[in-house]
Amino acid sequence: MSAALGGAPPSPAAAQIERPRPTIRVRHLSHRFGALDVLKDVTFDVGPGEIFGFIGPNGAGKTTTIRVMATLLEPMAGRVEIDGVDVTIDPAAVRRSIGYMPDHAGVYDRITVREYLEFFADAFRVPSLDVVDAVLELTDLGKIQDRIVATMSKGMKQRLQLGRILLHDPKVLILDEPASDLDPRARIEIRDLLLELRSLGKTIFLSSHILTELSDVCTSIGILEKGRLVVAGPIGEIAARLEAVRAAQAHGHAPPRHGAAPGAYGPQAHGHAPPRHGPEAATPDGAPVDPAAVDRAQAGAPPPGYGQHPPHAAAPASAGQAAYPALSQISRRKVKVRVLGDPEAAAFLVRGGPGITDVDIVAGAVHVGYVGTDVKIAEIVQHLVRSGVGVIGVEPERNELERIFLEVTQGEVQ
Hints:
- With 414 residues, the chain is of the alpha/beta class.
- Helices cover 31% and strands 22% of the residues.
- The protein has a six-stranded mixed beta sheet with strand order 6-7-8-3-9-10, with helices on both faces. Strands 2-1-4-5 form a four-stranded antiparallel beta sheet, with helices on one face. It has a four-stranded antiparallel beta sheet with strand order 12-13-11-14, with helices on one face.
- Helix 7 runs parallel beside helix 8 and helix 9 (235-250) crosses helix 13 (400-408).
């Protein structure tokens, strides 16, 4: 199956040695319809093997961006590259690299599922029809391959559309509202299919204004409002930057977000620079971030002196670090752990551990606040199991994407 529809995603070790070239690269993209500027200097990257969620209200400019990426619309300004190829210089090469599924795409109703896929396989000049069998298996349509398309549900038709764009084994999938108008079961099935496609090495660009359908699948996001990119990057990094802003505001070191100057979130907030990573990253005020501190936070390790001093007894920061918050505020998250037996005993075992910020019991579940990544969740579960506590459920905080969206947007439309 993987041989027919793509290889494995890049390994984490290789990504750490050298940052790969972005699969999708958008720079200073602008477009106008009449007197309306629908896109204003939009800049972002999508790395290989990512599921990138493009978020924004209706009319924000999401579909216009997608149409430019799909070579259906030429930008008035800026540059878009798909797998290193400029969409305006060689659109034919770009089309061979992408699978594009527009919102509310129609299907041919009076043929069977297999006939539909064989027709498009021929249109794509696929050398062997064996790929049709692979697509039927991947999309779970094999059992209904002889059914007339008109008799299928909306969810199955969406699966068929996904199957169609996979026939020529594209490297990049561009999906405009793929779960719109689907019932809950169909949404779950589409989500699971997207995760499977990512495991096959596909890079997926997914637009939506429904946050719940993105929160469980996206590795990175971009939020668009009134044609401007408000913020873009990995969800965890964006959340950490917002935590830094909140902490800086709490100490009087940053202006209010919604009344701030356009640069309150840095150049990336308005499409003037790619997301900042590594040593060149900075706090919202522009002060440099200590790379070692960030590495400790991402690894889930406590800051130096953790557990030795009260939280407010630390030495004063230097002038260059004044706006940077305490490490425990950079990547603080929550996880809900359900256990067999007494939750109080489980809470006692977790409380006070490295990277643990708070522990509460709510409705019989242990809610643990922690600093770090998913590695810390694994450590918590491993510690409980080794201590003889049966863990029956682990549920990370699910509202992070909603919180980010509400925090960085102002609810304005064009």
